[in-house]
Amino acid sequence: MFAAWFAPLRLREAEGGAVDLVAPSRFHASFVATHHLGRLAAAMRDQGLGLGGVTVSA
Fold first, then answer.
1. pTM of structure
2. Quick one: how far is CA 16 from the chain centroid?
3. Which of 9, 11, 18, 49 is the most exposed place for a label (fewest CB within 10 A)?
4. Residues sharing a CB contact under 8 Å with residue 8, sequence separation 6 or more, in sequence order
């Protein structure tokens, strides 16, 4: 799962506690946002990141 959905994500911006990630396609961004965003945001919060929110776009 990591190699398919999380590894291709790249950091676009991290500002004011918010993290914006970029995915390789709109489908990829939509799938991650729909199915994995909660898990991704929780993992980032555990590391002290993304406290202002996490977004994924293409």
1. 0.86
2. 16
3. 11
4. 23, 24, 28
CA distance 28 to 22: 9
Polymer length in residues for the chain: 58
Instruction: List pLDDT tens digits, range 28-45.
Output: 999 999 999 999 999 988
Are 5 and 39 spatial neighbours (Cβ–Cβ below 8 Å)? no
DSSP state of 57: E
Q: Which uninterrupted H or E stretch holds 45?
A: helix 37-46
Instruction: Report the 10 Å Cβ neighbour count for 38.
Output: 10
Q: For 4, left (φ over 0), alpha (ψ -120 to 50), or beta?
A: alpha
